Amino acid sequence: MNHRRQAVRGLAAALAALVALTAAGCSSKAKTGDGKQTGAGGVKTGKGVTDKAITLGALTDMTGVYATLGKSVTQAQQLYVKQVNAAGGICGRQLELTVRDHGYDPQKALAAYTELEAGVVGYPQFIGSPFVAAVKQRVDARDKGLVLPQAWSASLLGSPYIRVLGSTYDVETINAVDFLLTEKGLRAGDRLGHVYFEGDYGENALKGSKYAAEKAGLTVVEQKIKPTDNDMSAQVAALKQAGVKAVVISAGPRQAASLVGVAAATGLKVPVVGNNSAFAPQLLGTQAGPALEKMYWFASPSLPVGADTPVAKKLVADYRAAYPGEALDNGIVAGWTAASVFGEALKKACADKDLTREGVGKALLTLTSHDAGFGMTHDLGDPKAPSSRESVIVQPDKSVPGGMRTVRQPFVSDAAKSYTP
Scanning 199, 220, 267, 323, which has its CA 20 to 30 A from the CA of 381? Predict the structure, then answer.
């Protein structure tokens, strides 16, 4: 068994042990049932729902590797809740969003999930593929609260309650490699570098790059890193020595900035493309900013926050009014999209007079053509599939709102069409 598999299995075992402990710690609550009853308007209710309120949970990262993402996602969802409540709420009830910061720490993430589980109907936010995967069995078998994570690993597919909004990391990476092949000069016989986080996110993205490489006749040069690794000098040196012609990075914004900055400074001037969570526009104000604008692109499951659509324009105006001085980034889009999808499921569940967790989950299945206003139509009718296979290619550009401009509109590559997540 190689070291990579040992590390991944070790992390999975540790998370499974934590899940078992947290499940045991609340076993007495499980025995009492979820308190289903008929409430106001003849609507069935359960955990997280009273006659006056619908409580949602947000398990976020405000202090860890995805702190900028977590802040934007959370503020966008708080804005959604505020606007929905001002318009009268949903099903005669006000929305409440309970937020917990796990700092991208597995123990804190699982502890926060256990803390919120009994008091929410579901989660329009849960950052961190490994943490969501760790509670997947518990959610499916017992808890049954709808989770719309800001995580895109294919390992999350198949659950009726954990639903991926947008293309999974493997599909997204296949589309990203297609961009390198069709527009950035990568061709058969070349070496493609891939820097990726250990664990669920990075491993899933690596699966995509390997599939795309096999289809195109490329060789993948792997560089695995940890979320705590911030200096990419060693990885750049290894990739330069290997003679790569392009690089994919499946990590966080800080790692992407370091990679691109070091590559530019040391003469490895090749195109770098990242997954959707590997960029934050705040990086354009750092020393790596000029290199990012010249050498870096990333794939996204939606148009960027500064897109020229009515929904995007209104959201930017409302967000700036609510949070003056705060940076605009795609975390706002991800947060708003998840909140709006959850809200539509709640509205449908209300019409069906069933606001229990199972009722909300069933209602979500009816959303087969949901347009959140950012260029993608989401089909949530099949739990075994992501809601979309499309990607947008975005380039950092400090001259446009949100610091990002679209260079390739929503598309699905031929390789992604034939791929099975």
Answer: 199
